[in-house]
Each structure stands twice: as C-alpha cells, then as structure tokens.
Design a protein that fits this description.
By secondary structure, this protein is of the alpha/beta class. The protein has two domains: about 240 residues, Type I PLP-dependent aspartate aminotransferase-like (Major domain) (Aspartate Aminotransferase, domain 2), CATH 3.40.640; about 130 residues, Aspartate Aminotransferase, domain 1, CATH 3.90.1150.10. The protein is about 40% helix and about 15% strand. The chain is built from 14 helices and twelve strands. The strands form two sheets. Strands 1-7-6-5-4-2-3 form a seven-stranded mixed β-sheet, with helices on both faces. A five-stranded mixed β-sheet has the order 8-9-12-11-10, with helices on one face. Helix 4 links the parallel strand 2 and strand 3. Helix 3 packs across helix 8 and helix 10 packs parallel to helix 14. The protein is globular. About 50% of the residues are buried.
C-alpha cells in the first residue's frame, strides 16, 4: 500500500479530512477506492494473520482507516470492526481469560453490561461494578487476578462523568489495562489516550460515521495491543465490509462540523428543558447544574450532542410524549444527523432487570435525546409541542 504518513503535523479538523489517505494518490483519485477483492497475492513468509483477506481486517481500506483513527486519537495503531460490540468483546477477550477479574464502572451501556454479566461470566471471567468516583472502593475490589478497568467517557444514558483522571492513574499504579468507551465524546471533544488510558473504543455507528447508514466499531491502542485484539477478531470474524469502511471514512470528514454544531444545539435545548415546568430533571454535562460539570469543563473540548431528561414516572406518559414529536424520531440509535429520542428502559437497557435499572437511576420516565443538525429553534418548538 502507498505511504499514508502525514508530511506535516496537522490539527484535528485537517486530520479528519486527510489522515490515512494514500500518498501518492491511487491513480490520482482524491478519494481512496473500495477494495472488494477476496483473493490477494501472498508471500510464502506471511503468517496466517498477515495473509491479505477481508476477514483479517487488512485490506487497504481497513489499513487506511486504522491509521486515520490512531492519528485522531493520538494512539499508535487502530483497528476497525464490524460493530462497537465487536470492538468491545474482542478487546476484553484478548485481555481476559478464565479466572481473571475486571473492574467495571457502574452505569454501562446495556449491551456492554450484558456482555460482562452474562457472556464473560460463562467463560469464567469475574467482575465487580464500582462507583466511578470512589477510588477507595476500587482498591477494596482489587484482586490479584484483576487485569482490566473498564469505563465510559460519558455514561449511557445518565450522562455521568467518572473520575477519569484517577481511573487512568489507578490503572497504571496497579498494572491494569484501562479501557474506555468514548462513543459519546468522539475525538473532537475528548482524546482519552492523552489522559493516560491504554485503549479507546467507539461504536463508530454513532458520531464517527454520523450518517445513520453504517454499523461499525473501532479500537485504538498501542501497536502490540491492537495486534493482539486483531488476532482475536480474526478468529471471531468481526471484520468490517470494505464498503462500510469507505462510508465511515466519508462520515469522519465532517465530524468536527457536526459535533461542534450538535454540542452547541444540545446546550440550548438542555437549558430550555431545564426551565420547562413539565420536565422533572435534565442531565447534560454543559449545564452548571450537572454534578460533573466542572470535570467536563476541565477534560472535554465540548459537551456533546447527547442529553437525557425525565418527564414523569409513567412509561405510557413518556412514550406518549415521544410519539408526539414531529421532527425527532423514536429510535434506539444516536449520533446521526437526525435527532432521535428513546426511552432507555424499553430499548437500550431493556435487558437489565427493573431492579438493576432503578438502582442506576434509569426510570421508566427517562428520555435519551440525541441532538442532530436540524435548526435548534425547530427542535425546541418540537419539544414544546410534545410536552404541552
């Protein structure tokens, strides 16, 4: 493959457009072509994981995207996967085996929660959930077999921000591999490797792609760690189709523009909701009333396009409000150009028991609201109508 090393240092906005592009351009094309071939020449000295084949995530499109993602996050290497859960599962299973233990921040995305509490347990991998703001508890839950500390940059769906600086430091001090799902922040607003995290994960389906037409994931870490995760992924078959890689690259080019607008719009909408008499509570890190606002202001370059709010205790009442929205769509996904709303208790976190959800604060009246790129005033009017 042609050399894709940037010639000069670049700012994030420029990296989003050009990082990973082949130099020289292939046949002069400004956009890298899609490599669909499933047959490639190999060299006798190639090992199994080096033979070029789509399932091994090493076609030119995969390699280009890995380099781009690593450049954006400030890591040594990157790997693109078939989904966010493919990235999470391959990463955890490359680091953990039977008898091992991990610490997990409370309030995870529902799919990750189920992976940890069900699938990993069946493989003999133990865990403890911990308060992301209580280093004393982390120490009491630490075992000789503890290998990993897993966190999220902003929790889903309650928008909490753990003590990420201490998590990174604690992990280094106790020889743990620190993993963080940074889907809600994106590299525009936060780059965890700069804080000391070992491994960054994304559901690239969301902000990184941004067009609601690709399911993908990625992981960024050291070269050796990404190679180990790739070997696990090779066996699981969680590779991303080259066409989807191409579309993900297209989406990344506008990431800074989209996230910047969504962050500004979400803050205005959160302030409107906070002042509305029918809204019981609003969770958005950009609000001064958010308990982790000072931490978010210190760590992040922006507060993101995600917020959540409560409109009542009754599920039917909340579902009715969502159904009355005309612009915002009822959907369980997020991070696209279209505004979407969902009730996590019935969608993303339905796999948890009611007791587990209540313990975390995920009520039947909680709405998760992913702000798109529509006019902010129109979205506020839409919410006003639905609430009134």
């Amino acid at each position: 493959m042609a050399d894709s090393t940037p010639r000069t240092p670049q700012r994030l906005q420029t990296k989003l457009v050009h990082s990973g592009d082949p130099h020289p351009r292939i046949e002069g094309s400004g956009i890298a072509p899609i490599f669909r071939s499933t047959i490639w020449e190999y060299r006798p000295e190639d090992g199994y994981h080096d033979v070029r084949y789509p399932r091994l995530s090493n076609l030119p499109n995969h390699v280009q995207m890995g380099e781009k993602l690593a450049d954006l996050e400030g890591g040594e290497a990157g790997l693109v996967t078939a989904s966010g859960m493919a990235a999470i599962s391959a990463t955890l299973l490359s680091l953990l085996g039977a008898g091992d233990h991990l610490l997990v921040q409370h309030g995870l995305y529902g799919g990750t929660h189920s992976l940890v509490t069900d699938d990993l347990v069946r493989l003999g991998i133990e865990h403890d959930f911990v308060d992301g703001n209580d280093p004393g508890e982390w120490k009491t839950k630490l075992r000789p077999s503890t290998k990993v500390f897993y966190a999220e940059s902003i929790s889903n769906p309650l928008l909490g921000i753990s003590d990420l600086e201490r998590i990174a430091t604690f992990s280094r001090e106790h020889n743990l591999v620190s993993l963080i799902d940074s889907t809600f922040t994106s590299p525009v607003n936060f780059r965890p490797i700069e804080l000391g995290f070992d491994c960054v994960l994304h559901s690239a389906t969301k902000y990184l792609n941004g067009h609601s037409d690709v399911v993908a994931g990625c992981v960024i870490a050291s070269t050796d760690r990404v190679a180990a995760i790739k070997r696990k992924l090779d066996h699981f078959g969680g590779s991303l189709d080259p066409q989807a890689v191409y579309l993900l690259n297209r989406g990344l080019k506008t990431l800074a523009l989209r996230v910047g607008y969504q962050s500004a719009s979400a803050l205005e909408i959160a302030r409107f909701l906070e002042s509305h008499s029918k809204v019981r509570s609003v969770r958005y890190p950009g609000l001064e009333s958010h308990p982790d606002h000072a931490r978010a202001a210190r760590l992040f370059d922006g507060y993101g396009g995600m917020l959540s709010f409560e409109v009542g205790e009754d599920a039917d009442e909340t579902d009715g409000m969502i159904a009355r929205l005309e612009i915002a769509m009822a959907s369980a996904s997020l991070g696209g150009m279209e505004t979407v709303a969902t009730r996590p208790a019935a969608t993303t976190h339905a796999g948890m028991s009611r007791a587990e959800r209540e313990r975390l604060g995920i009520s039947d009246g909680l709405v998760r609201f992913s702000v798109g790129i529509e006019a902010t005033e129109d979205l506020i009017d839409d919410l006003q109508r639905a609430l009134d």
